[in-house]
Amino acid sequence: MNNLQQTEKQKSIVSSLKSMKDEQVISLIQDFRENGELFIVEPLLEMIYSNRSFSLKETILELVGDIKNQDAAEIIAKTIQNHIGDQNTTELLSACWQSNLDFSNYLPVFIEILCSSDYQASFEAFTVIENSVGNIDKKSLDLYITTIESKLKIMPIEKQSLLTETIVMLESFKRNGSELVF
After folding, report:
1. What is the pLDDT of residue 64?
2. pTM for the complete prediction?
3. 73 alpha carbon, distance to own chain's centre
């Protein structure tokens, strides 16, 4: 939700969030779990990338894993896209595949991470892709396969196997539908 759509109360919460102590934000997150609206997701996610405590970051990541509102997937994917290459993104990617959210509409972001990030982030992106492949049409699958194949030869050896495994998974799904056969 953008700022134009936020109520005055929501704007006030978001603006005061940055100046709150970590313990206060954690308390707010607990309240959000029970009565939450999506307006607070983006500012909380941005806190992962700021100079905040490990405890706060872990609480935010746990929240991501617990969010049930599918609309949050877009907010999370955009945040990830804005922070590709940041070490904190790896943990957010992990929270994505542990959640029950469907990221199939945002797979280009995860394909980019798969092909351009370090091995750990790439592996986490692979897992998000694997969990989302069931909702991808064959035309998109072909595009993703072609994109990954075009990057394969320039990858370090340790990542070539991960990209090859992704291609095999996507090809298998294209042939067999929801029955993944490796």
Report:
1. 93
2. 0.88
3. 7
